[in-house]
Queue: 4 jobs
Job 1
Amino acid sequence: MPLTREQLAQRAARELRDGFIVNLGIGIPTLVANYIPAGMEVWLQSENGLLGMGPFPREPEIDPDLINAGKQTVTALPGASFFSSPTSFAMIRGGHIDLCILGAMEISQHGDIANWMIPGKLVKGMGGAMDLVAGVERVVVVMEHCNKKGESKVLPECTLPLTGRRCVDLLITDLCTMEMDHSKGMFRLVELAPGVTAEDVKARTRAEYLADRVPMAMSV
């Protein structure tokens, strides 16, 4: 069965490492904050000026003035710091973020990402995604494999305006995990969600990808 949003967040949390500074994108990636392994110290950064985000607040903890870049209320851990947006983007552009976990509307087989706008629809702005994919050491994308019409979002080429080219290192979907082989410029199928077969992935993927290894079962 395809993974739920919470299971996708749990799988993405496996990419965290002790001491990492991590930026979480809007949507499914924000849920990763709830699944940081016990005993692991991870500093979550939000481009609106917060380092040290905690999990989402319970009702008594809600502070309407404490929000992330997606305008969701968040908590701040002991030792958290607040700063200006220019300082935040200096951290991102200066290569001080170890990992970012983003959502996407489309991903190409070469690791291009489109996640900031659909032409003709109202957009508030591109946010920090373009800076993140250019300035962060490792880029992980978490998304549903197909759109609401059942069409693949993993394509030979993106059809929507690009956020970045050849920048995605790992793609986690509700069907599988694909890792970029940078030497060959293509994704490789490395994990399958429980109950999903390699044939299922092939049938729902328009992009070409490497399938030269037996994929492991995805653990969440």
Job 2
Amino acid sequence: MGRTLEESSSSDLPEVAAAAAELERSRVHRRTLKVVVFGQVLGGAGLAAGITVGALLAEQMLGTNGLAGLPIGLFTLGSALAAYLVGGISQRSGRRVGLALGFAVGGIGALGVVLAAVIDSIPLLFVALFVYGAGSATNLQARYAGADLATPSTRGSAISVALVSTTLGAVAGPNLVTPLGSLATHFGLPALAGPFLLAAVAYGAAGAVLFVLLRPDPLLLARRLEQERVIAEITDDPAPPDLSTEPPADAVIVAGERPGRGAHVGATVMVLTQITMVAIMTMTPVHMREHHRDLGDVGMVIGLHIAAMYLPSPLTGLLVDRLGRTVMAVASGGVLLAAGVTAAAAPGDSLGLTIVALVLLGLGWNFGLIAGTALVVDATEPANRSSTQGRIDVLVALAGASGGVLSGVVVAASDFPTLALGGGLLSLLLLPALWWARRRS
């Protein structure tokens, strides 16, 4: 005998409820990605200012290139503290509040850099660059917001959407160096302060967009979905979760396990790619200026470098999902080595080879960041995800700070080719980490 209508309907309820919940999760996820894209376009413009002219401004104010890597070191050191704080705030109050505050603080730091340049204050410059680093940390933390509601098989692609959206602002920023410098001069400000004016406006706007539009909060929602999934398994309750309202920040959290081994491997990949990329990138503008390249050439090279950092993200995310995290992490080491060798071998006045080297540098970083981020997300749960990600981004930022500060010291003690080759070789250290993780698995 077949089942009665009542029996059939009752037994199908869990499947129907699960399908409805999945459709709603997917809808909220798509909306979240749109908001993150909007915020990241603005945040990318703010990010580009320090990368493009930070070292040049320090060289101008300090009168030496031996400390030209200090600005990158300071704002990446500031980003380390900001990553920890943004991660902690997001853990307690959600992505919306954490990201908005991070961008707002970064904008304040950018205004401080402008003021330091106007009054020629080295101490204020150092403090302002440190605070400005909050914007850089927040820009990177936003990639996690794109993955909070993604399924395991689409996390690489979700992360890539958040990263590629940074491209528009980040590429436009360096290419606006000359007109922004002219605008700053028109208002009686130093030319190199112009890009930081853009950063202040861009970071402030990014924070406002995320605070107003990132509803419901993706991290809090992912946490509640996990909680309701566990409760449904225990009680066999087929009722679908309500995703239409903003989840409370103090909602009960499902007890999660400690992050898995993949989080440590992902952190290692991101740390090594960051220190290599920052070290070579930091001294490239100084190296180019020493060979009589103007700010337009510097802006073009850095713009193309940043494009390579973010623009390939959709393809990289697809490859990370299809080929695997480990394969793309290994590819990252190979591309970064090629970048270092090319930069070291390029004649000082060769604009073409410098572009090739910096594009490869950005591409290798892109591979490593997306593969490493996917490893971290895979190894964490909504209950421990944000705080773990914040601590890992602290390590990534500290690696960048070390690379930025030491790059100027290395070049002052030897030369730029030595720095470039050393950075490329350093990236290969991720291979033993991946081999160890594979053996342990």
Job 3
Amino acid sequence: MKQVLILLFAFWIASCTNDEIPREKAYQRFYFPKKEYKNFTSNCNFSFELPTYCYIENKDSLFQEQLRSDSCWINVVFPSWNGKLHLSYKYYDNPDLLTKLLEDSYKLTSKHMVKASYIKDSIIDLPEIKGLVYSVGGNSASEKQFVLTDYKNQFVRGALYFNSTPNFDSMQPILEFVDKDIYHLIETFKFRSKP
């Protein structure tokens, strides 16, 4: 019995060496699907080309309140990265309301300055669509936001969020990949005439 205890003690002492090799810090490697798109027509009175690796969540209520008939909301879901592009549609009937919608969108984007290192805006000037794209740098909750309008009576706001702790370094490959999808969505975006 004494020999067994001595043998166990020897194994225990031998296992206590500190020969561990520290590993370098690294981020997860991502494998991205091939870029392919399909036409999507929303009940929200607009259409665009949707990536084939995404799906749509329709929203008929917001915070347990039914949406008004002049409003609509859908989410473009990126399931592989636990992300959503929130698209909210609004019909407006006077220019003052468009000004208010643009101001509200800017205020919502500006709230990210707490964590952001910068906000850069780019103008969208397509034949039937005008708007702005906001690129938010740093560890903000939403890296990409945009507004689109036909300057007649229809308005859409988009905001990209991921359900994870903001860390620009680890999210950068995903953000670059999804960025191209957002610009493709904007380039193929079309408002339908309001019935």
Job 4
Amino acid sequence: MQKDFQAEIGIIGGSGFYDLATDLTEIKMKTPFGPPSDSLGLGKIAGRKVAFLPRHSKTHTIPPHRINYRANIWALKSLGVSRIITSHAVGSLQKKIRPGDLLVLDQFVDRTGGRDDTFYDGPAVTHISTAFPYCPQLRSLAINQIKKFGQKVHEKGTVVIIQGPRFSTAAESVWFTGMGWEAVNMTEYPEVVLAREKEMCYCAIAVSTDYDAGLVAGGQVRPVSAQEVIRVFKKKINLVKKIIAAMIENWPRKVTCRCQMALKEARFN
């Protein structure tokens, strides 16, 4: 990749994040895994080079189960990105997490099927650890910046990722809630795992948009609809953008996590 087309921070979200940057240039990329979701936007925030990638494409035409996650992560890595900040809409599985609340995810449970979820299909057998899949340093930075905006933040959250594109049944939602998981989503996996395989730090700021099947709200709300997800997420998007900009303005000078050493003990020699 040409030196002019480089970045250190990746932001995965919607195209609405592009206006955070100055000197924005859009480039199309090819990868060994096919095309990414869309062109990547390269620009600067607080003097740092940033690459933007709309997960579902700019026009939101790619459903969760059809996103080319490997191409997206490979494209960011090839630009030099070492740390990723993402935004997600999630459904709440616990009454204490209200629509509009922010969560900084720290664990996931995978309930998807058939997704291409590794870069290592052989012959180099590779087993990365995902015991703690989210970057602790970036998580701490996100939590601190959210608090500075005077916002309530759930500092931990386990997200269960479903295949989609349908929402959960009532029985599934009851099960997820009973397991103690906090949120449900369709896009977090395998994105976070692929980032770890490429030794990239990954931080997810989630916006609770609904009460999933509505059961944890005591039957007081209807089950989730796509329109409701969009409505609540749009109300919070400007705040999330401000938080991400503040994170980059206060970017840590030194890497203190081990995310970028994920392959050190992951392979059979």
